[in-house]
Design a protein that fits this description.
The chain is globular. The protein is mostly beta strands. The protein has no helices and 10 strands.
């Protein structure tokens, strides 16, 4: 039988749990954070989101994508954790424009994904 253990307490409204690698990632809606915790109960805030961090997923190259709702944005975190999350706008024909939080989006920054 599997052992049930508490790895982390003191969180708010926790949603969208996802295992990736050796850690459990989840969105804490009340704190506006995406947090990871491992089986040794070590936790780390991976990203802070101005609005509700609805859910997470990983791109094939290891980048973390966070759905930020209600503002309807995708935020991207690099695999090495560097930089701030990037915002994206999904356009026609599957094009995606990425820009940093301090840049203004332009249609010339599109790339197909």
């Amino acid at each position: 039988m599997n052992e049930v253990r508490v790895l982390l307490t003191g969180r708010g409204l926790v949603e969208s749990p996802r295992w990736h690698g050796d850690r459990l990632y989840f969105s804490d809606w009340s704190a506006g954070e995406v947090t990871a915790v491992d089986l040794a109960a070590r936790s780390e805030v991976i990203a802070r989101v101005e609005s509700l961090p609805l859910c997470t997923a990983w791109l094939p190259d290891g980048r973390l994508v966070i759905v930020s709702s209600p503002d309807g944005r995708l935020l991207r975190r690099e695999p090495d954790g560097s930089g701030s999350p990037r915002r994206t706008s999904v356009g026609p024909a599957g094009t995606t424009s990425w820009w940093t939080a301090t840049e203004t989006p332009t249609s010339t920054a599109s790339a197909s994904i």
